[in-house]
Amino acid sequence: MMMRILAVLIALALAPLATPAFAVLPDEVLEDPALEARARELSKELRCLVCRNESIDESNAGLARDLRLLLRERLLAGDSDEEAIDFIVDRYGEYVLLRPTMSGANLALWLSAPLMLLLALGIGAGYLRRRSAAAVAAAEAEALSPEESARLKDILGQ
Amino acid sequence: MIAELGHFALILAFAVAIVQAIVPLIGAHKGWPGWMAVAIPAATLQFVLVGISFFALTYAFVTSDFSLRLVVINSHSLKPMLYKVSGVWGNHEGSMLLWVWILALFGGCAAWFGGGLPDRLRARVLAVQAAVGVAFFAFIIFTSNPFLRLAVPPFDGQDLNPLLQDPGLAFHPPFLYLGYVGLSMSFSFAVAALMEGRVDAAWGRWVRPWTLAAWLFLTIGIALGSWWAYYELGWGGFWFWDPVENASFMPWLIAAALLHSAIVVEKREALKSWTILLAILAFGFSLIGTFIVRSGVLTSVHAFANDPERGVFILLILLFFMGGALTLFAARAGAMEAKGVFAPVSREGALLLNNILLAVSAFVVFFGTIWPLVAELFFDRKLSVGPPFFNAAFTPFMVALAIVLPIGSILPWKRASLGKVLRSLRGAIVLSLAVTALVWAMQTGRSALGPIGLGLGTWLVSGALVDLWLRTGRSDAASRLRRLKNLPRADWGKAVAHIGFGITTIGVAGLLAWQQEDIRVARVGETFTVGAYQITLEDVRDVQGPNYLSTMADMRVEQDGRTLAVLNPEKRVYPVAKMPTTEAAIRNGVLRDIYLVIGDAQEGGGFAVRTYIKPLANWIWFGSIVMALGGLLSLTDRRYRVAAGARKARPAGVVPAE
Fold it and tell me: Where does the record locate the signal sequence feature (chain A) (predicted)?
C-alpha cells in the first residue's frame, strides 16, 4: 500500500515534466482493426490512475500509455474482454474501473436511479390522487343538493 | 496601498452584511418599518464595498503587483492583458471574491427593483441573502484572503495555468457564478416565504424571474465550459461527468425543475411546498457544488488533506443553511395549503412529471458523484464512478423527458384529453418517426443512438412549433400568423427554450454516434484521407508566442480536389508554468467539424497527427445558446415587468392593472 502511494506521488510529481503526448499514439495502434476497436472500447472503461478523472483512452500520462499497451498485450494474447479487464483489476484494484461493478454495496448505486424514480412516481401519484379527489369534492360542493334541484325543476317548470 | 483599501472594504462589507442579516429580520418580526428599511441601503452599500474590493484586486493583477501572494502564484508580467484580468477569478481566493460580489449584486437587485414586493417579505429576503453573505465573507477573510502580502516580493510571477489562458474559459466562471449565486435569490425567497408562512401566486411570480435569470446564466456558463473542453483538451470531448462538471449540472437540473414548478404555483396555486423545497435544494446543490470544487474532496483524494480548513468551512456553511432551511420547511410546509385542483392528465400533471424526471436525474448525478466517497468511508472500497455509469443511469431520464415534453407542453390546464393533444401533434409525430427511419436507413454504422437522438430532437423542435401555432387560436392562417407576432414573450421563450433542448439533443446524438477518428504518423508533404477529406501536412514550424513557444503545423484540408481550409493546429509549451497544451485547429461547419491535432515529432521522422470528423458538434452549444435565449425572452415578458413593477410608483391599495 505504502509503495503504491509512493509510486502515485512520484508519478504525480513527474507528470508535468513528462513529455506531453497524445492519448492513443500511432505506435500503439494494433494491426487488426477489430482488435483495436475492442481495445479502444475497453480503454474508455478504465481509469488513468494518476489523472484527475480521465480514462486511459483520453489521458496523456505515461501510466495511461502503459495501461493501454498492457491491455493490447492481453488482447493479442487472446484474452476475452472480461479476462483482460480482470487482469488489470487484479493488479491495479477496483479503482481502475470507471463503470463500478454491480457487486455488494455498489448495488445501491446501480439501483438508486430506478428506486428513486419509483419512489418519486409513487409520491407524485399520491399527490395527484389527492388533488383529483379534491377536485371531485370541490365539484360536489358546488353541485346542487336533491332539494335544491327539485326546487330548481319547480321554478323552471312554472 | 490599493490592496489594503480593498482588504478594508471587504471587512467593512462583512460588517454591513451582519447588520443587514439581523436588523431587517427583527424589524419584519416586530413590524417596525424603520428597521426593515435598513436592508435597502445596506444591500447597496454591501455591493459597492465588495465592488471596491474586487477592483482593488483586479488592479493588483493588471499592474502585476507581485507583493501580493495571490498575484505571484497566478500571474506573470508577460501574460496578455485579458488573462491578467481573468486571472483575478482564475484561482480560489479571487473566485470566492467574485462569488460574494455577485451575491451582493443579486441582493442589490432585489433591493433596487423589489419595490413591488411587500415590505416585510423584501426585508426578510434581503436579510436571508445577507446571512449567506456573512458566511462567505467570513470564509474569505478567515481562510482564503486574497489580499495577503509577501514580505519579500519575487521578481516575477508563476503564471496562470496555461489551460486557463483561453477566451472561452475567461468568461466561463463569471457566468457560472451568476448562475450558482443567482439561485441564492430563490433560496432567500423560499426561506422568507416560510418565515411569512405564506406562499401564493404572487410569490410564484416573484421568484420565477430570479430563477430564470440564474438558470440562463448557468446554461451559458456550462455551455462555455463544455465548448472550451471541446477545443482545448485536444480530442474533442464535450462532457466528462467529472465531479466539477456535475457540480454545475446538478443545480442546473434542479433550477430547470424549479422554473417549471413555479409556473404551477403562479398559475394554479398548487405544488407550493414542493416548489419551496426545490428552491432550497437548488441553492443547496450550488453550495454542494462550491464545496466539491473548492475542497477538491472528490477530484482528488489528496487535495482535501491539503486544505481541510476550507472544505470543512464550506461544509459547515452548507450544513447550517440547508439544515436551517429544511427544519423551517418541516415546521411550516404543512401550512401551505394547495388551492388549485386538477386531474392527473393535465398541464399540472405533466409539469409534475417534468419535475420528477428532472429532480430524480439530479439526484442520480449526485449519488454517482459522491459514491466514491461513500464507498471509501463506509465500505472501505476505493472505486471510481465514471462516464459509463452516468451514461447508463442518466440518459434514460433525458429520453423520457424528451418524449413527454411536447405532449405536456400543450396539455390544457386542469383537465385534458390525451387523444385530442396527440391529434394536434400528428404532424410532429409523423415527421419525427420519418426522420428516425430515414437516418436509420442512411447511416453506415448500426448505432441506434443516432436515429433515436435525431428523431427525439425533431420531435422536440416540431412539438415546440406546434405549441406556438396552437397558441394563435382557430382562425385562418393569415390572422394566426399575425397573432403569432403578438404572443406573449413567455410563450415564445418557452417554445424557443424547448427548441434549444431539441437542437442540443440532435448535436449530442450525432456527435456520439458518427464521430470518425484517425491517428497516424504523417511526414511533411504527406497526404492522407479521412472520411471524405484529403489532408496534407504541408509544413511544421516553430513560433514564438507572447508567453509560450509553439510548434505550429500548416495542414491543407481538401474535398474532391477543392481546398476547404488551411488549418494550423499547435502544440504549445508555457515555459514559466512548465506546461504543454494542445491547440486543436477546427474547421467549423453546420453538419460537421474537422478537428486537427498535431503531436510530437516521431523518432523515425514525421509527426503524430490526429484527425477527427465531428458531425453536428456545433449543434450542442448552439442549442444551449438557444435555450438560454428562450430563458431571456421569457424573462422580458410583460408580466414580470409589471410584477417587478416596482419602479413605477403606484397609489397604495390599488391593484396594478394588467
Answer: 1-23
